[in-house]
Amino acid sequence: MKNQYQKIIFGLKIKELRTSKGLSFSELSKKSGMSISYLNEIEKGKKYPKLDKIKILAKTFDQDENQLTSFELNPALLPVGELLKSNFLSELPLDLFGIDIQKVVEIISKAPVRVGAFISTLVELSKNYALQEENFYFGAMRAYQELHYNYFEEIELEVDKCINEFNFKENLNADKIEQILKEKYKLKIDEIDVEQFKELKNIHSIFVPKENKLLIHSDVNEKQKSLLLGRELGYRFLELVDRPYYAPLRVPHAFDPVLSNFKATYFAATLMMHRKKVAKQVEEFCSREKWEGKALVDIINSYNVTPEMFVHRLTNILPKYFKLNQLFFIRVRTEPSSNQFMIDKVLHLNQSHHPHSNKIHEHYCRRWISVDILKELQLRRENGNKGLIARAQKSTYWGTEDEYLTVSIGIPKGPLQDKDMSVTFGILMDDWLKKVIRFSADENIPTKIVNKTCERCPIENCKQRAAKPYVHQQRNEWKNTQDTLNKLIGKKGK
Fold first, then answer.
1. Region of poorest pLDDT, from 6-10, 80-84, 217-221, 275-279
2. Is residue 140, in this structure, part of any structural domain at all?
């Protein structure tokens, strides 16, 4: 069987030869003795003809057989060839989004020159914006989550089966999951020898398939260990074969391991935080007249999970059970006592909301609660306080009427976390939110006008500004230049 690349390239060549000679499918069918449907499938990359038919096509087009079957392409098709040769299309999770790869090939074959130029443009943009292969796979995974409002009923139901099968109780801990993994799946569990392998200091766990052994970093705490073991149980219970062998997953070379990693992690979170219990607690919390950050921290601490896991779980529960799907999630990190803040995880549900991490080498707006809470963590550390904190803010995006109720959890650095971190979810404020979340009317929740980055922000006298608004200034200068040009061109035209 010829691979997809060979089929597509051969089909593109046949289409190019047919159109260059001005032949219709019907005319080529008569000349070659092959059916119109078969020729159509060849051009679309669905079929690769046998040697006798290749000889007929070569003779029909007055081409050398070797030239016809080679991978050599004319300059117009070179960018497309490079794309196909890289296995990029075959590794795209097109089926998850209901896209047939043949449809993509058909688009390429209809306008190879234009599509080639478009692909070249995308490649150049990706270089400029530091988009790497692994970033693409993670981006595709986020898009998949957003498409399903980050709620996956089939995994929730599998967790129910797992709970019943192993008779799991509430407040599940690492010891119980470890027992199941050892008894049911004969998994060996040991520690990573970080003293011997210093380069593995940032790796939380490693699965060694030949030995059916899971190695766990010795510095993980109870909550982190529960996630690692819960995820391992997820791989096995969901029968996920194409899986990553280490965590956290950082440089995937295909999409399937990323998808398996997500499913197993979702499984672990669901196992530790059942949807019905979380939904009930959220309903009670949202019925409060006043915002109480400590009450939220208490809910988080009632589970044997990390704060980030809990906030991620909210992004599953809020859209499904409360119809609050105009939602975003961001994670921000900073070195203690530093003024540098980096967004390294983003999720948007239902639309592209304002906070993004795609402004390379720019300074994320310091007015968002995600940054304020990190500054507060630093002050609290100086005073000897090291616990979680939860804060809320009403954030109005500059130049729009879009207002978000944002809730952020500040997480001090700890085992296997060398930076302070904030995890934040924001929900677009509308009439439905005000009905569901009663404390959103609390006048004590601070309100701020926010923006994306300092470089693009025209807000004057901003005390939190970390950089001059040079991008905004350049845009204004060009606007003024353009206005003057239009006036002059207009006068000249008259």
1. 80-84
2. no
Are residues 286 and 386 both part of a single domain? yes
- Which CATH number does the domain housing residue 163 bear? 1.10.10
Position 121 in a domain = yes
Q: Does the pLDDT at position 96 exceed 50?
A: yes
pLDDT at 359: 46
Domain assignment of residue 246, yes or no: yes
Tell me if 359 sits within 8 A of 455, measured CB to CB.
Answer: yes
User: 52 has which bridge partners?
Assistant: none
End-to-end Cα distance, the chain: 67
101 and 197 in a single domain? The answer is: no
Same-domain status, 388 and 407:
yes
Output the pLDDT for position 87. 58
Looking at the structure, do residues 203 and 109 belong to the same domain, yes or no? Answer: no
Q: What is the pLDDT of residues 303-328, one digit of tens each?
A: 999 999 999 999 999 999 999 999 98
Do 178 and 287 lie in a common domain? no
Overall average pLDDT of the 121-135 stretch? 56
255 and 195 within one domain: yes
Single out the residue in 251, 272, 293 at which a domain terminates. 272
Q: How many domains does the chain have?
A: 3
Domain that holds residue 421: 275-466
The per-residue pLDDT for range 292-301, each reduced to its tens digit, is 999 999 999 9
Asked whether residue 105 falls in the same domain as residue 160, the answer is: no
pTM of the model: 0.77
Question: Do 96 and 202 share a domain, yes or no?
Answer: no
What's residue 167's pLDDT?
A: 92
pLDDT tens per residue, range 73-95:
776 666 666 666 665 566 666 77
